[in-house]
From TrEMBL:
Domain Calcineurin-like phosphoesterase, first and last residues per copy: 14-159
Cofactor (UniProt): a divalent metal cation
Spans through the membrane: none
Organism: [Clostridium] cellulosi
Keyword Metal-binding appears in the UniProt entry: yes
Protein name from the UniProt record: Phosphoesterase
NCBIfam families: yfcE
Keyword Lipoprotein: no
PANTHER family xref list: VACUOLAR SORTING PROTEIN VPS29
Stated family: Belongs to the metallophosphoesterase superfamily. YfcE family.
Any GO MF annotation of the entry: hydrolase activity
Length: 171
């Protein structure tokens, strides 16, 4: 197959996953500007108003979000599901699944929903792994990281598969 044909079939869909911004709009903005070609942004809760503020920068871009344990009075759902390039993504903040005490609950729910990818936040600790057919990601925190720099996640979906990455915010 020549290179021109290959390029046409190897489209990468990039998803930026953000969680626990807790009012740190500057890190949120940096993460967005670091990923100008992202196709989708998913915010996993804890400071819903940050998403409202950041929508100004994302005009015409797709952003999904769920509520977190600090989003008091939120009208957003606790969980969400979407399909991107044939991959079912289950996303939640994680507090309802008690992820600070282990991730079995959120993994079991993702499997029950037949998800290919599960996304959660709440712990402020980044995770990007693969377990028995399920891609698992916690992007860490842009607002109050635990044990390191502010981070977010990137998911690249190609014809060849799924790649998860944790990225530090550049200052």
């Amino acid at each position: 197959m020549n290179d021109k044909k290959r390029k046409g079939t190897d489209r990468i869909v990039r998803i930026v996953v953000i969680s626990d911004t807790h009012g740190n709009i500057s890190n949120f903005e940096r993460a967005i500007f670091q990923q100008p070609k992202a196709d989708l942004f998913i915010h996993l809760g804890d400071h819903e108003s940050d998403v409202d503020d950041i929508r100004l920068y994302l005009r015409g871009r797709n952003i999904l979000s769920v509520s977190g344990n600090c989003d008091f009075g939120s009208q957003l759902p606790d969980v969400g599901e979407t399909v991107v390039s044939g991959k079912r993504i289950f996303y939640t903040h994680g507090h309802r699944y008690h992820v600070k005490f282990g991730i079995d609950g959120v993994i079991n729910e993702a499997r029950r929903r037949e998800a290919d990818i599960v996304l959660f936040g709440h712990t402020h600790i980044p995770v990007a792994t693969y377990e028995k057919g399920l891609y698992i990601m916690n992007p860490g925190s842009l607002g109050h990281p635990r044990g390191g720099s502010p981070t977010y996640g990137i998911i690249d979906i190609t014809n060849a598969g799924v790649v998860l990455n944790i990225v530090e915010v550049e200052s």
